Amino acid sequence: MAAAGGWRLAGAMLVAFTLGGLGVTAVAEESHVAQALEALDDAHDALAATRDNKGGHPAAAIALIASAKAELSAVSQ
Question: In the chain, pLDDT over 70 holds for what percent of residues?
Answer without folding.
Answer: 62
